[in-house]
Amino acid sequence: MKQLIGYLWKLPLASVVFVIGLTIGGALLPLLGLVPPELPQGVDAGTMGLYFALGSLLFGLALALLAQGVSGSYVLRWFTLTLMMWVAYAVNNVIEGRIYSTFAVTSSIQSMLYTGLSLLLPTLGQAAVIAALFEPPSKALRTRERLSAFPLSGWAWRLAVALVVFPVIYFIFGLLVEPLIREYYVQGQFELALPPLSVIIPVQLLRSALFLLVSLPVILRWGKSRTALILTLGFALFVFVGGFSMVTTYWFAWQLRLFHSLEILADEMVYALILVTLFAPRESP
Questions:
Q1: What share of the chain in percent tops pLDDT 70?
Q2: Is residue 79 part of a domain?
Q3: Which domain does 121 fall in, by range?
Q4: Contact yes or no for 118/110 (Cβ under 8 A)
Q5: Which of 119, 124, 186, 220 is least surrounded by CB atoms within 10 angstroms?
Q6: Whole-angstrom distance, CA of residue 211 vs CA of residue 37
Q7: What is d(CA 193, CA 102) in angstroms, rounded to the nearest whole number?
Q8: CA distances from 168 to 108, 173, 258 (A)
Q9: Cα–Cα distance between 130 and 134 in angstroms, integer?
């Protein structure tokens, strides 16, 4: 009960910090010569802001679950949470939005830069609050010990497999939902687009490298069980990679949001299972 009460005030507080950071960032970036891009057609700025504020509670929940499992100093945990959220959400969605949509926020390098940087300050702020309010696990770990779990050759093939496995998972679950959502992309509804495979494949390899980059620090510093790691990492990636976006794109058809949410959840849970299997060996009794 005490833990639940803690969540009820800690997550809203972190969300307030996120919104404040978003506001400050939006005010500072034009001073650097970066002009905010236009919102998608038919989107109201006030409504969008409300959805972002409410949706940031999801960010807070994902970060809180990570913060309670990642060991280390405050600064190390803050950096790990920031890296995970900003790369998996901001950087990843800018990259994917560039090929799958005609949104103004990803229509040019300047727009992509503005979108990514506008989310950096709120990410830093929210991660700082969460890392401070949620205690790390009691079990202290040393990254060196986890790194020495495999020889250099063992790390090499594991990294190679991890790099390839995400695109494979992406295409498997993508094919399952394609009949349900394909027409939205083919017809260009909601400013969506369908790129050729020659574009999709290298982008998915790039996304895979980014997800591996932010997942490894969590895996190497995890102080709870492997099951908790799989569920927490999978849920966090789901929220950052697409769950938050499906909540905040209120103008999308509900079918599109639902099927994409299920697809992304399956993607990230299976991906987390494979990463943990590769990089977090079972401890000897």
A1: 96
A2: yes
A3: 2-35+44-136+150-279
A4: no
A5: 186
A6: 26
A7: 7
A8: 29, 9, 22
A9: 6
Rounded Cα–Cα distance for residues 13 and 126 (Å): 9
Q: 192 in a domain, yes or no?
A: yes
**Model pLDDT for residues 126-144, shown as the tens digit of each residue:** 999 999 999 998 776 666 7
State the Cα–Cα distance between residues 19 and 121, nearest whole angstrom. Answer: 10
C-alpha 203/C-alpha 95 separation (Å) is: 8
Output the pLDDT for position 41.
Answer: 76
Give the total number of structural domains in the chain. 1
Where do we find the tokens 């901001």?
Answer: 90
Length in residues, the chain: 285
Q: Is 222 helix (H, G, I), strand (E, B) or coil?
A: strand
How confident is residue 150, by pLDDT bands cut at 50, 70 and 90?
confident
Is 209 domain-assigned?
Answer: yes
Q: What mean pLDDT, rounded, does the chain reach?
A: 91
Largest CA distance in the chain: 59
